[in-house]
Amino acid sequence: MKIIIFAGGTGTRLWPLSRKKSPKQFEKIIDDYSTLQLTVFRLTNDFSYKDIYISTNKKYKEIVYKQLSQIPKENFIFEPEKKDVGPAIALVCGILNRQHPLEPIAILWSDHLVKRNKLFTKIIKKSGSFIKKNPQKIIFIAHKPRFASTNLGYIHFGKIVKKIDNFSLYEFRGFKYRPDEKTAQEFLQKKTYAWNLGYFVTTPSFIYEQFARLTPNIYNNTETILKDYGKSNFETTLNLQYGKVESINFDNAILENLDKSKALVMIEDIGWSDIGAWESLKEALENHPYENITRGKTHLDHVRDSLIYNYENKKLIVGIDLDELIIVNTKDVLLISKKSSVAKVKKIVENFEGTENEYLT
Q1: Residue 2 pLDDT > 90, yes or no?
Q2: Helix (H) or strand (E) holding 266
Q3: Distance from chain centroid for Cα 85
Q4: Separation of alpha carbons 24 and 35, rounded Å
Q5: How far apart are CA 263 and CA 173, in angstroms?
Q6: pLDDT tier at 276, thresholds 50, 70, 90
């Protein structure tokens, strides 16, 4: 079984730590490791490094080589420019379709946290065993909702159609993206909706066939690139050809148009969190809702329900009588925000474009 980890996002909502030159998935957010490293490490008890592939932008080549030196260099797939996830997945699956067309693959993302690692890897392995026998199927790995989130997508599922040991596979009935608060509460109560993690297990052959059927322009462009795969001029062809298709999300290009009978859903509680923003990082790390989450040199007195990250070793952050704040100190930016206002960070960073502060983005 092969594992493909995508690490090409920019992570604006985790600014000022996450920047264009070094997005969130490469920064030391948990202890001394990046979330990309943690994503790989949680797999290595059950999968070898030679079976793990990394897809990212070529401008991050040196970062990923340094952070993941155990992975063979031929397992790194570099996009020459940003074209959203649709073309990126087509490229990776096109390559693997030439090498291992019917071997199960798991698609994962580099900026998530998973607390129940053993359960997580067991789910991937069991899903892989099913796909090995059913190579024209896809299994979506979903999560039991902990709360009515309006920032996450949902998978609508139906009845149980198969059991794999202690795991159930459910009918797939469709996706729903970022519902409003009322709809999210309804989803939570109905118990037929689960959080969509963006994780799935299938075969390269199945996914690549979907590109041929649903987005022939992306498929044909990828085929033009891959005719030179393994040759000395491959990188030149890739650089010339990759940008000739539109940017499109994989969900919009493929998943929303799948034959539903080909898909199944596995739903478990793996202790998953999407740490796309500071408040979600706090929620992922806290043991109770009012706990402070800190990093670096801090001294707090009567501080409650706050995240305080200090990346300067020679500076001490002292907080007194504070409540529900996000404070992030880097060498060139100090961010101070109410926890409820941190969603505005993305817009502020976007507004820096074309100004004297653009170098900070």
Answers
A1: yes
A2: strand 263-268
A3: 11
A4: 8
A5: 9
A6: confident
